[in-house]
Amino acid sequence: MYLDIPESVRKKERQKAKDLKKSRWWQNLIQDTECYYCQTPIQRAQVTMDHIVPISRGGKSTRGNLVPCCKTCNVQKRSLTAVEWTEYLNQELSGTAPSSTQSEAGTE
Ligand SMILES: [Zn+2]
């Protein structure tokens, strides 16, 4: 599933996000916040703004689609949607990732 968003629309949404970053709403939000994805408390200077649905997937720069995010998650998330990303995180946390070579089936 890949949406072809015209560059003009992307530019507009990026600009809107920039404007919202300066808004009182966002500034208040990041005073004392945590990462939307990993729930790590983030210092104000480290907060990045993330689109839950990326602009490239048709997401808009609205308050409902913008969340504070730590730099680590922001970099890793890239163009994944929040749902895909959350699934990825859940896998990591529950230890069911295929990379795990340890046998979970034990002597219960
Ligand atoms: Zn995070």
From TrEMBL:
<protein>
    <submittedName>
        <fullName>HNH endonuclease</fullName>
    </submittedName>
</protein>
<dbReference type="InterPro" id="IPR029471">
    <property type="entry name" value="HNH_5"/>
</dbReference>
<keyword id="KW-0378">Hydrolase</keyword>
<dbReference type="Pfam" id="PF14279">
    <property type="entry name" value="HNH_5"/>
</dbReference>
<keyword id="KW-0540">Nuclease</keyword>
<keyword id="KW-0255">Endonuclease</keyword>
<feature type="domain" description="HNH nuclease">
    <location>
        <begin position="24"/>
        <end position="75"/>
    </location>
</feature>
<dbReference type="GO" id="GO:0004519">
    <property type="term" value="F:endonuclease activity"/>
</dbReference>
<dbReference type="InterPro" id="IPR052892">
    <property type="entry name" value="NA-targeting_endonuclease"/>
</dbReference>
<dbReference type="InterPro" id="IPR003615">
    <property type="entry name" value="HNH_nuc"/>
</dbReference>
